[in-house]
Design brief:
7-stranded parallel beta sheet; alpha/beta; 7 strands; single chain
């Protein structure tokens, strides 16, 4: 079994990933900011925990050195601006990019030397359909698009090293994410009817699938949507 570090692990997709991978016997280190939730997760799964903000580079440098992950799951993210750039304070732009993009790149940089030395390993980035398709989320989409191109280009850089790079791009997931992101998911959906979204466990299943692939197989990108959601199309609107 592998040593795995999962960020954003206290709720939603991150928590489901920890539960799934720990149940398979992996040595999982769960990283998040909420100590009480991490403690409950450790009681449930037996995982290791680390209370940290992924944007704290010094703290994360120490954590990666201690955890020595063979697999890194960059899941931590924040949905600032997901229902419109005008809904946030300008100072939140930096916070969103540091959380959704910079931290994933920095953590990958920290984890890669040991993986290169071993000639194996896997970087798994939790992206979004907002990074692949045009949606009403300029800031969030820009961050996830950056993560998508980071994953694509990193795969090129690591060719021949034995290290795999996987990106999972979910659509609507039923979790706390939207409440924490904007408090106004109706604005994001533009009046769309309620649907059955993905469960966090559905995304965790995709993660487990990508990790379980034979060593010579790289599951590069998975786009995961609930049946009631599609992307694409053309919109029209008169000026306000």
């Amino acid at each position: 079994m592998s040593r795995i570090l999962v960020t954003g692990a206290s709720a939603g997709i991150g928590r489901a990933i920890v539960v799934r991978l720990a149940s398979e016997g992996h040595d999982v280190t769960a990283v998040a900011r909420r100590a009480d939730r991490l403690a409950a997760l450790a009681d449930l799964t037996g995982c290791r925990t680390a209370v940290a903000d992924v944007t704290d580079l010094a703290r994360m440098t120490d954590l990666v050195a201690a955890a020595r992950p063979e697999i890194l799951v960059n899941n931590a993210g924040i949905g600032l601006g997901i229902s419109g750039l005008h809904r946030i304070d300008v100072a939140d732009v930096d916070r969103a990019i540091r959380t959704n993009v910079t931290s994933a790149i920095q953590l990958t940089h920290l984890a890669l030397p040991a993986m290169r030395a071993a000639g194996a390993g896997q970087i798994l980035n939790i992206g979004s359909i907002a990074g692949l398709h045009t949606m009403i989320s300029a800031l969030y989409g820009a961050g996830k698009a950056a993560l998508h191109l980071f994953s694509q280009n990193l795969r090129q850089e690591l060719l021949g090293t034995g290290i795999r790079v996987t990106e999972i791009c979910p659509g609507r997931v039923t979790s706390e994410f939207y409440d924490d992101a904007t408090g106004n998911i109706e604005a994001t959906d533009m009046g769309a009817p309620p649907i059955r979204g993905l469960d966090p466990e559905d995304v965790a299943d995709a993660v487990a699938y990508a990790l379980a692939a034979p060593a010579h197989v790289n599951i590069s990108t998975i786009e995961l949507l609930p049946v009631g959601q599609v992307v694409g199309g053309v919109r029209f609107g008169a000026p306000d």
